[in-house]
User: Which sequence fits this backbone?
């Protein structure tokens, strides 16, 4: 039986709330710039609203999953700011690697792309990208950063990217060419990473230190 989820939405301090289905939440936020996010605990959802619905949030002590985060690289993608898709890649303390790595290194990582690092320390992909593409790009850059800092653990909350696309399970007919290109790159990179004893794990969005937004 699926766990009950709670969907928090935030327009401003006076217009916000929590509903119990994505259908109801979608009706409220569709076509707006409201922030929204799902939670497995209603108290944590309310805490998020009370804190101003910030996406780059601190891991709350009220998060119902008792987990000490391992040292590693964490990635996520989100569209909650209403400006397009952003990708965030952090350590276990939610510090963005794009702000701590040397500028020349970041420049090399983004070479041959039109993407930039925004004021939040995230890679901005633009308004015409999907969140799933953002998650894929997040894993791609996480794998690149793992080589640079010699890290053996990567974690994210996208089942699609971690359990399917990066393992070669995808349908070309349903995807754009650049998405297929990045999938194929990630497949090769993941094999090499795991060959060198690297581990890629799925974690809950509620405890992901890179968490950028809504998880349906």
Assistant:
């Amino acid at each position: 039986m699926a766990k009950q989820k709670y969907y928090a939405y935030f327009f401003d301090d006076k217009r916000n709330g929590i509903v119990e289905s994505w259908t109801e939440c979608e009706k409220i936020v569709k076509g707006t710039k409201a922030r929204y996010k799902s939670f497995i605990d209603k108290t944590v959802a309310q805490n998020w609203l009370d804190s101003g619905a910030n996406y780059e949030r601190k891991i709350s002590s009220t998060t119902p999953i008792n987990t000490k985060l391992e040292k590693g690289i964490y990635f996520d993608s989100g569209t909650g700011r209403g400006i397009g898709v952003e990708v965030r890649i952090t350590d276990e303390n939610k510090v963005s690697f794009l702000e701590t790595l040397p500028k020349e290194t970041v420049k090399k990582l983004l070479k041959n792309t039109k993407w930039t690092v925004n004021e939040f320390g995230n890679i901005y992909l633009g308004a015409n990208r999907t969140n799933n593409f953002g998650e894929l790009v997040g894993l791609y850059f996480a794998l690149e950063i793992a080589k640079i800092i010699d890290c053996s653990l990567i974690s994210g909350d996208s089942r699609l990217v971690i359990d399917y696309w990066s393992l070669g399970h995808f349908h070309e007919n349903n995807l754009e060419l650049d998405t297929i290109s990045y999938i194929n790159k990630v497949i090769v990179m993941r094999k090499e990473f795991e060959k060198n004893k690297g581990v890629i794990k799925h974690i809950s969005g509620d405890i992901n230190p890179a968490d950028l937004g809504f998880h349906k």
